[in-house]
Write a sequence for this structure.
């Protein structure tokens, strides 16, 4: 797990950054204890720096570490009795134009001493309208927080008005279909996935195209074929194409599940499936995404390839 992915931080993490001389970057900024103050100038700088991370790719600001030429040199403790976590949180949200972006503040104390506090502020990238601090928009550039140009603000604004969908949680299951006499007649294959709106914009029109190997479909039970037939759009060389339009709008954070059950694999369709994956293509107003389900690694039963088994 990288430093940025951690869910908790200790004084050892700070000591390690200094020991390894981890340089500042577009995602990491060191600030001395002097950067935290109840004076307006320092409070404005705090809001400016946090908003710059939110308007960029996110990152971490550490208040309580001295740096020289962007390299950490020593700890510079904040008095946590005077400048509390709650105070810092209030300064950040009070100095920024919106509270919709996410931050998490980690108070780190040497030997549990409140007078020896370091504040690590983790800022998530904000996908909505850019965050303003004071009367300007800021972004991260190399080691600094710099004002955004007007065209950059416009670009980010319109970019965030376009929806972004994602195919998630692709899962599959293959089980033998066994007669009462204990004989394998074929294998039943199912797969499922979700389409999620990961943008702040509502998506009204999207569709998912699914290509299923021909013999897998043709050898499936009638009830499975009957469910899929209304969505069949094209007969391709090795696949049938099925198209599923959106039935309702997909709001920010919402997911739409898709579930395909009881597709059949016998000896012939297994050979075909080894060389023809299931293909998914998601179309939406902001673009398109393609995914594949490679069937070859799945076509085993009790350590043997399915096409080498004896079907009855």
């Amino acid at each position: 797990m990288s430093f940025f992915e951690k869910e908790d931080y200790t004084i050892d993490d700070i000591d390690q950054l200094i020991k390894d001389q981890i340089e500042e970057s577009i995602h990491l900024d060191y600030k001395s204890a002097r950067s935290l103050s109840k004076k307006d100038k320092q409070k404005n700088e705090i809001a400016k720096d946090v908003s710059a991370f939110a308007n960029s790719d996110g990152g971490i600001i550490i208040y309580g570490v001295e740096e020289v030429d962007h390299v950490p040199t020593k700890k510079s403790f904040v008095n946590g009795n005077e400048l509390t976590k709650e105070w810092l949180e209030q300064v950040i949200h009070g100095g920024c134009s919106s509270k919709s972006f996410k931050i998490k503040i980690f108070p780190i104390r040497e030997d549990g001493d409140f007078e020896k506090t370091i504040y690590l502020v983790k800022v998530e990238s904000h996908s909505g309208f850019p965050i303003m601090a004071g009367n300007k928009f800021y972004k991260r550039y190399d080691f600094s927080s710099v004002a955004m140009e007007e065209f950059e603000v416009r670009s980010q604004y319109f970019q965030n008005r376009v929806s972004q969908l994602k195919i998630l949680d692709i899962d599959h299951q293959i089980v033998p279909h066994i007669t009462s006499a204990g004989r394998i007649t074929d294998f039943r294959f199912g797969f499922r996935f979700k389409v999620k709106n990961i943008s702040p914009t509502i998506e009204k029109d999207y569709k998912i195209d699914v290509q299923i190997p021909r013999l897998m479909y043709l050898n499936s039970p009638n009830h499975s074929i009957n469910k899929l037939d209304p969505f069949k759009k094209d007969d391709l060389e090795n696949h049938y194409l099925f198209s599923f339009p959106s039935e309702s709008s997909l709001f920010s954070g919402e997911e739409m599940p898709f579930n395909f059950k009881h597709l059949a694999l016998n000896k012939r369709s297994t050979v075909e499936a080894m060389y023809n994956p299931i293909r998914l293509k998601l179309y939406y107003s902001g673009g398109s995404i393609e995914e594949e389900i490679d069937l070859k690694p799945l076509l085993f039963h009790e350590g043997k390839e399915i096409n080498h088994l004896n079907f009855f």
In short: The mean pLDDT is 88.
